[in-house]
Amino acid sequence: MRQVAQNYKSGELVVLDVPAPACKPGGVLVRSLYSLISTGTEMMKVTEARLSLVGKARARPDQVRKVIDSVSQQGPVATYKKAINTLDSYTPLGYSLCGVVVEVGTGAEEFVVGDLVAAAGNEFALHAELNWVPTNLCVPVPVGVAPEHAAFATVGAIAMQGVRRGEGQLGEMACVIGLGLIGQLVLRLLVAAGIRVVGVDTVPVRCRMAEEAGAIACAAPDVEGTAYLEQVVLEATGGLGADQIYLAAGGESNGPVELAARLARDRARVVDIGKTKLDLPWNAYYEKELDVRFSRSYGPGRYDDRYELDGVDYPAGYVRWTERRNLGCFLDLVANGSVEVASLVSGTRAIEDATQVYEELRTGSLKGVGFLFAYAHAGDGAAADVVGHEVPGSPAAGADASVNGAVNGFVTPATAAFARTLRSPSTSATGQAGSVRIGFIGAGAYASSMLLPHLTKLPSAALTTVATTRSLSAVNAQRKFGFEAVSTDVSQVLDDPAIDAVFVVTRHHSHADFVCRALERGKAVFVEKPLALTREEVDRVLAVVAATGNDRLMVGFNRRFAPLFTDLRRRFGDPGGPVSARYLVNAGRLDPSSWYLNEGLEGSRFLGEGGHFIDTLSAWVGHDPVEVVSYRTSNGLDLTAVLRYADGSLATITYATDGDARFPKETLDVSGGGGNARLDNFTRATVWTRSGKDVKRSFAGQDKGQRTQVAAFVEAVRTGGPMPIPLDSLVATTRSTIAVGESLVSGHGEVP
User: Fold this and answer.
1) How far apart are the first and last CA of the chain?
2) How far apart (Å, rounded) are the C-alpha atoms in residues 134 and 307?
3) Please, what is the angle between helix 181-192 and helix 153-166, to 10°?
4) CATH topology of domain 2-152+342-415
5) Rounded to an integer, what distance in angstroms lies between the CA atom of residue 241 and that of residue 262?
């Protein structure tokens, strides 16, 4: 299928052929009819992508802060590689569309195939021919609403949430500053609510559009226009001023904020909807005691994964207007004629013309407020009726002749024109003789920066198929690392008899299931930590191993392969008895939106990462833990686990999330046999013995062992030799990690 994408590093904007997404539980697969270009949000992203690296840094200071923190933790070389890898990837555009349901996932049975729906979300309602959309970001289109008008629903919900934040009442006066697409919709909603409105914009045509939509007056924000609007507002309100001011403008000028204070009445409400400069003039805002509010996207539920992905709705009695209800409400207003959007359609172009359209918008040669992409589909040649709707025979006025009549035909999954797997015609279908043919499930940031770059350098490794949830992730992996085929269907990896080894690099909750399925098909398996989240999952893996006889399993415990670690262990020597070890992990705080924090699905943060540190200690001691006891600080942010080994060794792991991000992440100290050893964040390793102090450094930056680890795994698969870490040790480490969490609850621990 075709999808619009942009490379944020180079600024390149292209229409790609990508594998179609799979239909997952909790949502529907939607074939696009029209998608709306957000001339504000999207063009800001397009413009930023064309900036130099310095310009990008200035535009995104929040990301610069993360990079600085990463340098402190990982060093400049690793941080640079990670940042460039992130930048040099195709990212999607779009977040508002109308289309037809062609497949229904489990749990989304409120929809049926053929439903005409409006969809939202910058991860779901993309400029693509097919999109999977979760139920809470998808609403039916009322009868009588044209698909090209329903494509405005997401942006309409953004405007509606802004209006709700303004808490307007009948008879009040409002001012909308910025009459682009969002501003035009805000104005129309205010008029529909019985609120008098004036508008401000630098473009005369936009002012005229607003007046035709019901504004009592509009003007430019110059001296003459401002004086005129101030007079209109004062006369209309008996000298009070505007009750609500909506900031729907963008740019670096502080003019909108200053104008808002001038036109507002005492204690008026100022609502920021766009991304404008907010250097509030203190005297003006203080003297009027202005109430400054922010409007966050489509409404309550936005950025809440439980709402958007899991489909957990907020009760209407507590949250009347969620983002989904805002979407539906906007379409209802369009259906009954209260809000008119036809005049906002400035043009409709075929999706194939996307590159040209964005360039014309960027240069200003294409003028208007609302532009749509239209999608042509291969059907059976006959016009298909959408449930409850008759799809128009031609796109909206202004559409290219090349797409006229092309949106009539739709196909069901059984006759879908777009395969979910794409194979590169330029690559061999057999790979190199004697090589290990590798399939990947997942190709996110870690796989792309820490695993795949090393695999591509191994002559004995042949990358065959990569399967990812998001189409562009697979395409990015193919472009960078040369996979023969890309897919959104994991069965293309699991069921391919030519694939020797499967790498599972997905979110934690899926690991054990993918491991079992791959082992059952006779594959060697490399799974990123953790192997499992529960003892039951561990038992299931062992049952599959017993039933199949396939124990070719490796977990990504890479630190034991780090050059500085292995050399430090060698220099420390045999202590002749038990040792005492302390592993301090300065994990730091996570972004509140991180999926790591979804403990109900992904397990605790330590459960996801702690196996690394337990395995490293076990590699040093030479035994697996036999007992685990753990404690948590009273604020719940940090924990300490004490591990006891069969030889009498003791180790503690302090997992701290409340430290400074600039402090090194990992420090390992070991004492025993009259000596001491310290590993400082995999950049410096020191041994103290009776003969003196011996220090070694890694001048090339951190090396946590990933390169050596994947090479050892591939070689074991190629030769049939033993796995780099014995299965018993992998299981003991996983059970010990689980026991840490159990001990926090029970107060004691063991590793059965």
Assistant:
1) 50
2) 10
3) 60
4) Quinone Oxidoreductase; Chain A, domain 1 (3.90.180)
5) 9
Spatial neighbors of 526 by CB under 8 A, at least 6 apart, are 501, 502, 503, 504, 554, 555, 556, 710, 713
For residue 89, give the nearest of 8, 20, 16 by alpha carbon: 8
Q: What is the mean pLDDT of the chain?
A: 89
The correct answer on CATH 3.20.20.140 for the domain covering 155-305 is no
pLDDT digits (tens, 9 = 90+) for 156-172: 999 999 999 999 999 99
Which residue reads 């064309």 in tokens? Answer: 50
Q: Which two tokens stand for residue 511?
A: 């690991």
Following CA atoms 373, 379, 383, 384 in sequence, which dihedral angle do they give, to the nearest 10 degrees? Answer: -90
Query: Which tokens is 390 given?
Result: 């008759």
DSSP letters, 111-174, are: S-TTBEEEEE-TTTS-SBSEEEEEGGGEEEPPTT--HHHHTTHHHHHHHHHHHHHHT--TT-EE
Q: Are 437 and 460 in contact (CB under 8 A)?
A: no
Confidence (pTM)? 0.84
> Helices marked H in 398-458 — which ranges?
445-446, 452-455
Task: Identify any residues that bridge with 523 across adjacent strands, giving them in sequence order.
Answer: none
CA 20/CA 2 separation, integer angstroms: 9
Residue 54 confidence (pLDDT): 57
Rounded Cα distance between 501 and 441, Å, is 11
pLDDT tens digits for range 250-302:
888 999 999 999 999 999 999 999 888 999 999 999 999 999 999 999 999 99
Helix H or strand E encompassing 742: helix 727-746
- Per the CB < 8 A criterion, the answer to whether 469 and 494 are in contact is no
The kind and range of the H/E element at 206 are helix 204-212
The tokens for 713 are 């795994």
In order of 53, 553, 556, 558, 624, the CA distances from 504 in angstroms are: 33, 11, 10, 15, 25
Give the model confidence (pLDDT) of 394-439 as tens digits.
333 333 333 333 332 333 333 344 456 776 644 433 345 579 999 9
Quick check: do 155-305 and 435-555 share a fold? yes
Nearest to residue 341, comparing CAs of 297, 371, 365, 384?
A: 371
Per-residue pLDDT reduced to its tens digit, 508-546? 999 999 999 999 999 999 999 999 999 999 999 999 999
Domain parsing of the chain, residue ranges? 2-152+342-415, 155-305, 435-555, 559-746
| CA 468 to chain centroid | 13
Lowest mean pLDDT among 19-33, 85-99, 178-192, 241-255: 85-99
Q: What is the DSSP letter of 342?
A: G
Q: Is the pLDDT of residue 715 over 90?
A: yes
pLDDT at 38 > cutoff 90 = no
Q: Tell me which DSSP letter residue 600 carries.
A: H
Homologous superfamily (CATH) of 559-746 is Dihydrodipicolinate Reductase; domain 2 (3.30.360.10)
Residue 577 has pLDDT above 50, yes or no: yes
Rounded Cα gap, residues 82 and 74, in angstroms: 10
In residues, how long is the chain? 752
CATH of 435-555 given 2.40.50.140, 3.40.50.2000, 3.40.50.720, 3.60.21.10:
3.40.50.720
- Single-letter amino acid, residue 126: L
Do the bridges between strand 580-586 and strand 666-672 make them parallel or antiparallel, or are there none, so unpaired?
antiparallel
What's the rounded mean pLDDT across residues 196-225? 97
pLDDT (mean) for 103-120: 97
Contact 177, 247 (CB under 8 A): yes
Exposure letters 29-57 (e unless 16+ CB within 10 A, then b): bbbbbbbbbbbbbbbbbbebbeeeeeebe
Proportion of the chain above pLDDT 90, given as a percent: 77
According to DSSP, the β-strands at 684-689 and 675-680 are antiparallel
For residue 655, pLDDT beyond 70: yes
